[in-house]
Amino acid sequence: MSNIFENNRRYVLGDPELNIIGDRDKLAQWRHKGCGPAYYKLGRKVVYLGSDLNKWVEASRVEPGQNGGF
């Protein structure tokens, strides 16, 4: 699959592109639970690397019919 996010870009909360994977509240829930895409915490600012977001998206891929599906 082609990349959804630009690999060399840094994304911060509020960037509309992040809404593809979840809104601000969903991303906060994932960080609190220790799941979701990798991120950097710089003071109060949260930064996501495009390459990390693309890896997370690819790892979240579901193949229909796998794992005993119909």
Q: Descriptors for this entry?
A:
70 residues, alpha+beta, 3-stranded antiparallel beta sheet, 2 helices, 3 strands, 16% strand, globular
Question: Helices, strands, pairings?
Answer:
Elements: E1 10-12, H1 24-33, E2 40-42, E3 45-49, H2 50-59
Antiparallel strand pairs: 1-3, 2-3
Written description of the protein model:
With 70 residues, the protein is an alpha+beta fold. 29% of the residues lie in helices and 16% in strands. It is built from two helices and three strands, in the order E-H-E-E-H. Strands 1-3-2 form a three-stranded antiparallel beta sheet. A hairpin with a 2-residue loop joins strand 2 and strand 3. The longest helix is centred in the middle third of the chain and has 10 residues. The mean pLDDT is 93.
Radius of gyration: 13 Å
- Percentage of residues assigned to helices: 25-40%
Task: State which percent range the strand residues make up.
Answer: 15-25%
Distance between the termini: 24 Å
Could you describe the largest sheet, including whether it forms a barrel?
3 strands, antiparallel
Structural class: alpha+beta
Number of DSSP strand runs: 3
What order do the helices and strands follow? EHEEH
Poorly predicted spans: none
Count of helices? 2
| Mass-distribution shape | globular
Strand order of the largest sheet: 1-3-2
Mean pLDDT across all amino acids = 93
